[in-house]
Amino acid sequence: MSALPLATSFLQQQSFLDVLYIIAFALFIQGLRGLAGPTTAVRGNRIAALGMAIAIAATLLQPGEHRWGLIALGIALGVAVGVPAARQVKMTAMPQMVALFNGVGGGAVALISWVEFRRLGSSYGSVTVAATESDVGRFHGLLVGHPAVPTYVAIFSVFAAIVGSVSFWGSNIAFGKLQEIIPGRPISFGSAQQVVNLVLLVLALAAGVDLIAGAHSQLLFIGMLVCAALLGNAVVLPIGGADMPVVISMLNAFTGLSAAATGVALNNPALIVAGMIVGASGSILTNLMAVAMNRSIPAIVAGGFGGGGALARAEGAGEHARTVKSTSAADAAIQLAYASRVMIVPGYGMAVAQAQHAVRELTKELEKRGVEIAYAIHPVAGRMPGHMNVLLAEADVPYDQLEEMEEANQEFGRTDVSLVIGANDVTNPAAKNTPSSPIYGMPILEVSQSHSVIVIKRSMNPGFAGIENELYYEPETSMLFGDAKSAVSEITAELAQL
Amino acid sequence: MTILASVLTTNLAILVLAGFIGFVVISKIPNTLHTPLMSGTNAIHGIVLLGGLLLLALPEIAPVYQLDALSEALLVIAIAFGTINIVGGFLVTDRMLEMFKSRPKPSAEKDEGEDKP
């Protein structure tokens, strides 16, 4: 119809919109800079949130035929689910919550791409390298009013649909594993896994290419989404719990990239900038995590610790039926009380048992007795990057007692007792000594260098990675079997009676 | 051709530059902040919500491009998802960071009431 009024209002409003968007970008970047430093982080997060509010307000202020009822419904639903979830989630359940929030972001990307296909898909492939911008109607960057859909729009939209769908399903599986709805152990098709993944990827890509080339089939689009969904499932299901920090931060980067791709398809700079910043920072974090495990990202994606771990376990059990030394809470209390320096080594077990407050109580009691306390934090301890730091911060552990891996490894030599609470693979000497071990080469906390080691563990079952831990059989190690929280509390109680 | 290409090039330029900014800003982060950083950036990609908002404001100028009921339903879900991502992400990050806040000062006892919900 009349393109002129649309064009003028578009021009008039566009500069205003752009200014608000630019302010929002600046706030995102400033906020992110803040998030990188301990003292500025709270403010940084709030600045980024303000940027988001401005970007949303700017978008809503645009003239157009808003379906206000539907917009309000969507936002209300989101707030009704998101706010209570974020308020009530326990710090120990943080990894799955982050996974879930990430997943819905990916889902939103996939759905928006689907709607774009429903609107414009019949014109995919019909044009037209020769189409000029004047052939293409725009409404705040969205294509309207002309059947000319530039190929790049189709490409970015299809890319966003695939990656968004992978991210949605992958994150949901990660959530399921962390919430223990799905077993945390690697679930896979065995040696066929890589083939299955590859076939799904190829199918999704082939469907995508076909759609871009002009197969105006809604069914094909849905088929592509399904292939991508299955791929998301197939990639994350075989990944063991220990690899979760890498997976979660990788999926985060994926969702960011898919949002940026949506931004190119919708010609919306806010989406491009925000999505890319997340994509880039997420990639850095993913890489950091992978380096901390001495594993390449492709190797993690290609399959978890599953097969190799099972082999190593069978081998170890068969060769020598070794014994472990077990101890009691009372003995552990004595050992700790007469130490001059104790290193706490927390792991996922502490998170599961929600033992962080009990641990803090124990260390307070020990500090009263003049014992020097430090915490050794492995970068991939737990199920998401920085997991242990969050939990210990919740329990009011002083910041300066937390030691990163390199620092801690220099200190184990002068440590009397290392108290390992629910940490397994990150302390396994096999990573240094056993070339056949699936975790060989991963930097570990060298707990066995300390004079003695107490390991609090539920049972002798190997951890999520399914790998036998040599540490437990070493002469200076004693095992205290039980739930991390009650075991630590018992030690504290015994300590009080000394 | 040229104008259309310039829209694409502009967007690609923005894409690349934003990527560099992301790399530069987050080049060095202490372990402590890995979780808040991830969950903060996680909230930011909820911005895809804007796409849903714009689509639901489309004027119905050409019948071909009207949103049908299914499209509208999909967009409502997309907006709900995006909102969960944004609101939940920022709130959770804020909660986590509040716990780190009093860390450098040894007198953390006062805040204890707030830390335990």
What are the main properties of this structure?
heterodimer, A: 498 residues, alpha/beta, two-stranded antiparallel ribbon, elongated, B: 117 residues, flat
Count of all domains of chain A: 3
What's the gyration radius of chain B in Å?
21 Å
Oligomer: heterodimer
Number of strands of chain A: 8
Which structural class best describes the helix and strand composition of chain B?
mainly alpha
Low-confidence stretches of chain B: 103-117
The chain-level structural class of chain A is alpha/beta
The largest interface is:
A-B, 130 and 98 residues
- Strand fraction of chain B equals under 5%
Main sheet: strand order of chain A: 5-4-3-6-7-8
Portion of residues within helices of chain B: 55-70%
Sheet having the most strands of chain B: none
**Could you spell the SSE succession of chain A in H and E letters?**
HHHHEEHHHHHHHHEHHEHEHEHEEH
The largest β sheet of chain A comes out as: 6 strands, parallel
The 3D shape of chain B can be described as: flat
Low-confidence stretches of chain A: 305-320
- Return the average pLDDT of chain B rounded to an integer: 79
State which percent range the strand residues of chain A make up.
5-15%
Tell me the layout of helices and strands.
The complex is a heterodimer of chains A (498) and B (117).
Chain A: H1 3-35, H2 41-61, H3 68-88, H4 94-120, E1 137-139, E2 142-144, H5 151-178, H6 193-213, H7 218-236, H8 244-265, H9 269-292, H10 297-302, H11 306-319, H12 329-337, E3 341-346, H13 348-353, H14 356-368, E4 372-377, H15 387-394, E5 402-404, H16 405-411, E6 417-421, H17 430-433, E7 452-457, E8 477-481, H18 484-497
Parallel strand pairs in A: 3-4, 3-6, 4-5, 6-7, 7-8
Antiparallel strand pairs in A: 1-2
Helix pairs in contact in A: 1-2, 1-9, 4-5, 4-7, 4-8, 5-6, 5-7, 5-8, 6-7, 8-9, 12-18, 14-18
Chain B: H1 2-25, H2 34-44, H3 49-55, H4 69-101, H5 112-115
Helix pairs in contact in B: 2-4, 3-4
